[in-house]
UniProtKB/TrEMBL annotation:
Entry-linked SMART domains: CoA_binding (SM00881)
Protein family according to the UniProt entry: In the N-terminal section; belongs to the acetate CoA ligase alpha subunit family.
Major enzyme class: transferase
Domain N-acetyltransferase: residue ranges: 758-913
Keywords: Acyltransferase, ATP-binding, Ligase, Nucleotide-binding, Transferase
E.C. designation(s): 2.3.1.-
Pfam families linked: Acetyltransf_1, ATP-grasp_5, CoA_binding_2, Ligase_CoA_2, Succ_CoA_lig
GO molecular function, one term: acyltransferase activity, transferring groups other than amino-acyl groups
Protein name: GNAT family N-acetyltransferase
Positions in coiled-coil regions: none
Length: 927
């Protein structure tokens, strides 16, 4: 069946990566459940689980397992798993912790693929429990495909499947919000609140000790779940950072994630050795990671409830423009203040809306937003105003604030709002302010699925969190400019030079060596020269030219200014001699333990209009390398004007870091001051991100200050601290990064049939303009063959799906040619593996002008080669029966063709020879 889509965006299948997480259906949508440790005892976990399963209305067989009972309630009880009439999909283990490893083996032997372990007594209890958990992990590892939630968890609930495999105190109603928590106690509090507020959930998960199923697994699973439209996380710590980041970025592409991170002020266990380390604390790194993933972070538990209410009951607002309809001026002003304080937008009503409101409201109404319908407003007047405002194209959402008045009718007013809300697709929030007199109206809103808040500020906060999600997503997928960052030096040869430095055994590189490393990545430096004695200092000063800077030379002194180890602007030989003695003597007095080797001499760089920044990177225990930029100099840690980001960087991410600084106006030309060379600064940040990506041995890197002028940037001081454990035990490539960098290893040149050269390389966000041009050059037939639907034109929203990809999860190879000195894309192929990295979907598009030149075959062969290297077992593709070129390509490469799936689709499938040793480019190895 052919069809034509007039929508600008792709179908849901094209928008999302299908990433089914193996066997999690056995846990969240089981057809049968065994409860191991089921009991008659009312206070036992096994009894509570049995009761919850019954009250939730689970329709499949439930098998109690306990050798001490013949029946539990009206159900036959089985002595062991071997006695069960069928193999259940899910087993819920409620027995003492010491028994669990053997029970897991029994479940594995029986063929049960889903486990929820409620039992406690593992690592949370100390060393003995830690050993027991290791034994449990070892037992689970004997059964590939076995998935486990827990141990030491409250359990899971899937209300749409009528499943409550937990010992929680209630079952929530079915809803659209998934909730994942690392705290079982918090789960019970949220459940109590949800019952009171009539809030529903699609899934409700207590993770426990997370020996198998991680937060990342669940985010992936819920991304493909039809019932889940948003996600709330309660996070105490992240263990699998790359998995978490990939999953969250994929989910947040289309659905909002709200997260509360506990332990905001936990101090790092290791004292920071540099300015960068001191400024990049644990919590700020989580903040940076959440921002990069598109997660909206909330700071208070009340915000979690408020956001849950809005997510559960309304669509995500299309934009930040809020209209406020109220029967009292004061609360309207309160709501406006809260909105503007959070950088929200007070909607500007259209002329047509003003005219309609003039016709409906008394002459004394406010004539603008907030819309004050006055204290004597009847429910009908309130409803009329609300309907007009909702129809205004300048309004994205409406907050209705109702305050008790002498003649007010709160319940009738609520009924009027509910009636209007049924006919609108825009979010409507309510705040019926007051006490007992408002209880009936509030209950009515809760039962009708309209979010309601006790104070307007609460409503505004919840609204702005969702607006923040939209803003963050927009920034993340803003097309970066192409920055000409190239490395003419042989990076492999440079690696060899660096290995020689590593073998010297020093944890801290000297300023000279640190700057040499920066310079090799074409980051400009003020070159230091080593002076072991006074005569060397004088000679070098004369050679570089006055004025000069002298700095103490010692591998043991990180903060040179703390020991009086820096002197600036030395103008002659006498000043250099005196300075040398002062620096060396002070350093020895302040740090008698330090190895003071002399000083370094460098040219004094003077710029009256330049700004000093700190730029650096450090390795976080969770998220790996983290980059920092901020106001620099000796007061860097005092002012804490900083921005953090996870490498790798592109132009847009680097620019966002700079624009988020409080000192950004000073860089951008504040009050007529010259604007610094922002483009050169951005390029330097990108180069630094390449440096820390290439060298996992770098533990901390500190450039402070980095002088930025209207013409250039220059590193005035630098220090690199190494981790020699990484030297002795080299890690997997890029395992020190939470986000996989651009896979340059998949770049190569090929020739077409007519001899023209084509560059094959992975796609990148900067390719978006050329990607649009490629699609525009294709006929409707070519577009139909590739996408299986037609669209008016390609959009940025489409491009975010196809150009902004996670190289840990998928890859798209573009074919690039030069024409009259201009680069253009002439083809693209795309591989999307499943979560197990066993199967991959494949698609290819070739520009009409290049068809018949063998480019489709070249792209297909390259994708097959990549799949073999990745260890993919099966590659599948769809095309139309009329696409003879593609069918020929399939036939010549041994694809089996299935023409019976659908009249207008041919499904091609090819089994690949598994590569016994996948390359480092394999996503499976990058996890």
């Amino acid at each position: 069946m052919n069809r034509t889509d007039t929508a600008d965006s792709p179908t849901k299948k094209e928008q999302e990566i299908t990433m089914p997480v193996r066997n999690l259906d056995k846990i969240f949508h089981p057809e049968s459940v065994a409860i191991i440790g089921a009991s008659h005892k009312a206070t036992s976990v096994g009894h509570t689980v049995m009761q919850n399963m019954a009250e939730a209305g689970f329709t499949g067989p439930v098998y109690p397992v306990n050798p001490r009972y013949e029946k539990i309630g009206d159900k036959q009880c089985y002595a062991s798993l071997a006695d069960l009439p069928t193999v259940p999909d899910l087993a819920v283990i409620c027995t003492p912790g010491a028994t669990v490893p053997n029970i897991v083996r029994e479940c594995g032997d029986a063929g049960i693929m889903g486990l929820v372990i409620l039992s406690a007594g593992f690592r949370e209890t100390g060393e003995k429990g830690r050993k027991l958990e290791d034994e449990l992990r070892e037992a689970a590892g004997e059964y590939p495909g076995l998935r486990i939630i827990g141990p030491n968890c409250l359990g899971i609930m899937s209300p749409h499947s009528k499943l409550n495999a937990s010992f929680g105190n209630t079952t929530p109603a079915p809803g659209r919000v998934a909730f994942i928590s690392q705290s079982g106690a918090l789960c019970t509090a949220v459940l109590d609140w949800a019952l009171q507020e009539h809030i529903g959930f699609s899934h409700f998960v207590s993770l426990g000790n997370t020996i198998d199923v991680t937060i990342g697994d669940l985010i992936d699973y819920f991304a493909t779940d039809d019932w889940t439209e948003s996600l709330i996380l309660y996070v105490e710590s992240i263990t699998e950072a790359r998995e978490f980041m990939s999953a969250a970025r994929a989910f947040a592409r289309n659905k909002p994630i709200i997260a509360y991170k506990a332990g905001r002020f936990t101090e790092s266990a290791e004292a920071a050795a540099s300015h960068t380390g001191a400024m990049a604390g644990v919590d700020t790194v989580y903040e940076a990671a959440f921002n990069r993933a598109g997660i909206v972070r909330i700071s208070e538990m009340t915000d979690m409830f408020d956001c849950a209410e809005l997510l559960a009951r309304q669509q995500t607002p299309k934009g930040p423009r809020l209209a406020i309809v109220t029967n009292a001026g004061g609360p309207g002003v309160m709501a406006t203040d809260a909105l503007l304080d959070r950088n929200g937008v007070l909607a500007r009503l259209s002329k047509e809306s003003i005219e309609k409101l003039n016709a409906e409201l008394p002459a004394a109404w406010s004539k603008s937003n907030p819309i004050d319908v006055l204290g004597d407003a009847s429910p009908e007047r309130l409803a009329a105003a609300l309907k007009i405002v909702l129809e205004d194209p300048n309004v994205d959402a409406v907050l209705t604030v109702f305050a008790p008045q002498a003649i007010s009718q709160p319940v009738a007013a609520a009924e009027a709002v509910i009636k209007v809300a049924k006919g609108s697709r825009k979010p409507i929030l309510t705040s019926w302010m007051g006490g007992a007199s408002m209880a009936g109206a509030i209950d009515m809103f809760n039962r009708s699925g309209i979010p309601t808040y006790s104070a307007p500020e609460q409503a505004v906060r919840a609204f702005m969190y969702l607006v923040s999600y939209a803003r963050t997503r927009e920034v993340l997928y803003e097309t970066p400019r192409e920055v000409p960052v190239g490395f003419p030096l042989n990076r492999g040869k440079l690696r060899g030079v660096f290995d020689t430095i590593l073998s010297e055994g020093h944890d801290t590189l000297t300023e000279s060596t640190s700057k040499a490393l920066l310079e090799s990545y074409e980051i400009p430096v003020a070159k230091p020269f080593v002076a072991r004695n006074m005569d060397d200092a004088v000679s070098l000063a004369r050679r570089v030219g006055y004025p000069v800077v002298l700095k103490v030379l010692s591998p043991d002194i990180t903060h040179k200014t703390d020991v009086g180890g820096v002197e600036l602007g030395l103008a002659n030989e006498t000043e250099v001699i005196e300075s040398f003695h002062r620096i060396v003597n002070r350093a020895k007095e302040e740090r008698p333990d330090a190895d003071v080797q002399g000083v370094t001499v460098q040219k004094m760089v003077i710029s009256p209009v330049g700004r000093e920044l700190i730029v650096g990177a450090r390795r976080d225990n969770v998220f790996g390398m983290v980059m920092l930029v901020g106001a620099g100099g000796t007061a860097a840690e005092l002012f804490k004007d900083r921005a953090l980001e996870l490498p790798p960087l592109n132009e847009r991410l680097a620019r966002r870091m700079l624009e988020s600084l409080k000192s950004w106006p000073l860089l951008d030309g504040y009050r007529g001051r010259p604007r610094v060379n922002v483009d050169r600064l951005i390029e330097s940040l990108i180069r630094l991100s390449y440096l820390v990506a290439d060298y996992p041995e770098i533990k901390e890197l500190d450039v402070n200050p980095l002088l930025v002028t209207p013409d250039d940037v220059i590193a005035l001081d630098a220090r690199v601290i190494l981790d020699h454990n990484m030297v002795l035990n080299p890690p997997r490539r890029f395992s020190h990064l939470a986000i996989r960098p651009y896979p340059e290893e998949y770049t190569k040149r090929v020739k077409l049939k007519d001899g023209r050269s084509v560059l094959l390389r992975p796609i990148k966000p900067e390719d978006e303009p050329m990607w649009h041009d490629l699609l525009a050059s294709c006929s409707k037939e070519s577009i139909w063959f590739r996408f299986r639907y037609l669209f008016k034109k390609s959009t940025h929203e489409m491009a975010t799906r196809f150009c902004f990809i996670d190289y840990d999860r998928e890859i798209a190879i573009v074919a690039e040619m030069e024409d009259a000195g201009e680069r253009r894309l002439v083809g693209v192929c795309r591989l999307v593996p499943d979560a197990d990295r066993t199967n991959a979907e494949y698609g290819v598009l070739v520009a009409d002008a290049l068809q018949g030149q063998g480019l489709g075959s070249l792209l297909t062969d390259y994708c097959l080669e990549i799949c073999t290297n990745w260890g993919i077992h099966t590659i599948v593709a769809e095309t139309a029966p009329q696409n003879q070129r593609m069918l020929s390509i399939f036939a010549h490469r041994g694809f089996t063709l299935d023409r019976n799936t659908c009249d207008d689709v041919v499904l091609g499938r090819k089994e690949l020879v598994k590569n016994p040793s996948p390359t480092e480019g394999s996503p499976a190895l990058l996890r």
